[in-house]
Specification:
The protein has about 425 residues and is of the alpha/beta class. The chain has helices at about 15, 20-25, 25-30, 50-65, 70-80, 85-100, 135-150, 190-200, 245-260, 295-305, 345-360, 370-385, 395-405, and strands spanning about 100-105, 130, 160-165, 175, 215-220, 225-230, 265-270, 275-280, 315-320, 325-330, 335, 360-365, 390.
């Protein structure tokens, strides 16, 4: 006689733990901007994220236990007492790689031990760097957007409403005959009715081009946005990390535009001693840059980007915490003055703001400082470009920025 022996199922924390919760808990580490190391000097594309540092971050997250339920917390404590926590961390890293949340620059070998102090073994794992994948960045952007919208309460998303009608997804008017180039959002009832009137009720029912009817919706204009992000060294000085929250807001804004306003475009410009355009996919890997703030160069690059866009509305969203303190001269040299508001730097910057106004580009400024001189400068920029100035903190930056962006979606343009 055949016998089957059953044993009690014991869950493996490495396979039971939610990767999404783990990634969310590690978000501050994965998006860090150099604040932890005051002597850190910037690198735009090369992060200092190693597997050893990731192991330490995961260990701290497990010991904190905020993402664990009571049963899982007890298992982790028991594994720690039995000396099995290191093995659990290696399995979690392997899962993160298998599920494509991180990529490692060489094959991951769990049999080799880490070089982290306190961990032993005959073989040592060399210092291996890793990167957050596009899937991981997309998830972090989604979580940031969800957290920000959750703090705002219920919001009604708009779509740049105007008075014109066009074919689209959300119907708001009578259907009409399809014309070449229309969005093929068929009015099924009207289309079938036309075919039945012409052919009679039979099967199969043959449709002709003239039978097609499409829904009409309100014409929705599109907006081109350039996010100007200050990455000068002051963004991590004075005992506060201002750059990491700014990066999270930028990722949330990108997620919002991609999911709710697909007709809009978003570009990213970093400004420091100079300025440069950066792909949004590289945003999470950016750290703080050189010490000065070349606002004028950032505005010039933003205008060049907007000139290429064929959108109804164009705007610049500028996040900064410092005064303009650098200027690119005609011969390419960079003039720098960090002491007070330099008249030359300010006048050239305001001249660039004036060019934005003439081009119909609106500038909204989110200032992470409350200096009296800066307030006057930012207010002048807002007056010139019909924009708004928000004096906020890293904790409220996301709420102000997303509310401002979404509020303009509900305004009718005539």
């Amino acid at each position: 006689m055949k016998f089957i022996r059953y044993s009690k199922y014991v869950a493996d924390p490495a396979s039971e733990m939610s990767m999404e919760d783990l990634l969310n808990t590690l978000s501050d580490y994965l998006l860090q901007s150099g604040f932890q190391d005051s002597w850190y000097f910037y690198e735009f594309n090369e992060g200092e994220q190693t597997l050893d540092a990731l192991r330490q971050a995961i260990q701290q997250a497990l010991e904190a236990g905020e993402m664990l339920d009571e049963n899982m917390r007890q298992q982790i404590e028991q594994m720690q007492a039995d000396g099995q926590l290191d093995e659990l961390i290696e399995k979690l890293i392997e899962r993160m790689q298998q599920e494509n949340y991180i990529s490692v620059d060489q094959p991951f070998d769990r049999s080799k031990q880490s070089t982290v102090p306190g961990q032993t073994g005959e073989q040592q794992q060399p210092q291996v760097k890793f990167e957050v994948t596009d899937k991981g960045l997309d998830f972090l952007g989604y979580r940031a957007l969800r957290d920000l919208l959750g703090s705002l309460g219920k919001s009604s998303f708009g779509r740049h409403d105007t008075r014109d009608l066009a074919t689209g997804i959300e119907s708001s008017g009578a259907s009409r005959s399809y014309e070449f180039g229309d969005t093929l959002n068929l009015d099924i009832t009207s289309t079938l009715s036309n075919a039945i009137q012409r052919e009679g009720l039979k099967v199969p029912l043959e449709l002709e081009y003239s039978d097609l009817q499409v829904h009409q919706c309100e014409y929705q204009s599109s907006c081109a946005t350039v996010l100007m992000l200050d990455c000068s060294h002051s963004m991590i000085l004075y005992g506060e990390d201002r750059f990491t929250p700014a990066k999270k807001v930028a990722m949330a804004l990108s997620q919002l535009i991609r999911t709710q306003y697909p007709g809009d475009s978003l570009s990213l410009v970093l400004f420091h001693d100079s300025a440069e355009e950066l792909p949004l996919s590289q945003l999470a890997r950016v750290k703080v840059g050189p010490y000065y703030t070349n606002t004028r160069e950032g505005l010039r690059m933003a205008q060049r980007i907007l000139d290429r866009q064929r959108k109804d509305m164009k705007q610049i969203i500028m996040i900064t915490d410092g005064k303009p303190s650098a200027l690119t001269l005609e011969d390419g040299r960079i003039y720098k003055n960090a002491f007070g508001l330099d008249p030359l730097v300010v006048s050239q910057t305001l001249e660039e703001v004036s060019r934005c106004k003439r081009a119909g580009v609106m500038i909204n400024t989110f200032m992470l400082a409350s200096d009296f001189g800066l307030i006057q400068f930012v207010q002048k920029v807002s007056e010139m470009c019909r924009g708004k100035a928000y004096f906020t903190t890293p904790h409220t930056l996301g709420q102000y920025l997303l509310m401002d962006y979404m509020s303009r979606k509900t305004k009718t343009i005539h």
